[in-house]
Design goal:
Order of helices and strands: HHEHEEHEEHEHEHEEHEH
Strand content: 15-25%
Number of strands: 10
Distance between the termini: 56 Å
Strand order of the largest sheet: 5-4-3-6-7-10
Length: about 290
């Protein structure tokens, strides 16, 4: 194959998942109805949002006299709070997210990417700016940004577990982390503490396959990571069930504690559950002021 042909083949391979991911995210986002102004908030900024009746604490210079003259009452202009309109996403693209226990279920990665992109669609169409952590994609609005998000979210990480980071988060903005959170918790702890130091609030969504909650194994079983880097064989898998379930419960409790400590929200979502319900939870969680 020529060099140009090889480049085209690689480009087509990279682009092939994008229409399906965008279509799924668009369909998922359509299940959530937004208000007239979406998530726009009043605050410091340069972009006009709306007029409101003047209050006693408003300075005389802030009154819009032309608008006030039409109503025989003082009105002021409210501006959009640009920083509060920035939302940073981290969607785990590690190999562990590629797991699915049944052909009828999406992989954890497919569900996480659809939820992340659907959230971005809602936020951007609600006049917010969305980007990715780690300075991979600065927060912006518009349909072009959605295409860039889809392209980056369609990539895979070669590591078993993805690593969140707080780099690139604007002070007092919002953030959304989606992962199975089954890897080393130190990276998650560090990212959340750094985010909290900047006044960033957000939501943690843990994505698990139903089999990871039930541990339906017994007898001789081989457990292997998605990359094959880790492998464990046992003749009595059933004896490990309670220990596994206890550790999983402890992991969830730790995530919930981290969320409470840093002012974030936390939930666990199973791939067998409704994606629309998870998206509604995300949208509501990003609205809350901890």
């Amino acid at each position: 194959m020529t060099q140009s042909g090889d480049l085209r083949a690689r480009a087509e391979t990279l682009a092939s998942p994008l229409p399906a991911l965008l279509a799924e995210a668009e369909h998922l986002a359509s299940t959530v109805l937004l208000g007239e102004h979406g998530r726009r908030r009043a605050g410091l900024g340069d972009t006009f949002w709306q007029f409101r009746p003047a209050q006693s604490h408003d300075a005389a210079r802030s009154i819009d006299w032309r608008r006030s003259a039409r109503a025989d009452a003082p009105f002021v202009q409210e501006k959009e709070w640009q920083i509060a309109q920035s939302v940073i996403l981290w969607v785990d693209q590690g190999a562990s997210m590629g797991f699915s226990s049944h052909a009828d279920l999406p992989t954890k990665s497919e569900r996480a990417r659809a939820l992340g992109l659907a959230s971005a669609i809602l936020l951007i169409r609600g006049s917010e700016r969305v980007g990715l952590t780690g300075l991979r994609l600065p927060p912006r609005g518009g349909e072009v940004q959605l295409s860039k998000l889809a392209a980056l979210l369609s990539q895979d990480d070669t590591a078993d577990y993805g690593t969140p980071e707080a780099q690139g988060m604007l002070p007092h903005s919002r953030a959304l982390f989606i992962s199975d959170f089954l890897g080393d918790m130190r990276a998650t702890e560090t990212a959340l503490l750094q985010a909290a130091d900047r006044g960033v609030r957000g939501a943690l969504v843990q994505i698990l396959d139903p089999q990871e909650e039930a541990f339906p194994f017994d007898g001789r079983t081989i457990f292997e990571s998605m990359t094959g880097a880790m492998r464990h064989e046992t003749l009595r898998a059933g004896d490990l069930k309670q220990q596994y379930l206890d550790r999983l419960a402890a992991r969830k409790d730790h995530l919930a504690h981290l969320a409470r400590t840093t002012g974030w929200q936390f939930t666990t979502h199973h791939t067998g559950q409704s994606a629309a319900a998870a998206l509604l939870w995300i949208y509501g969680a990003l609205e809350r002021k901890a």
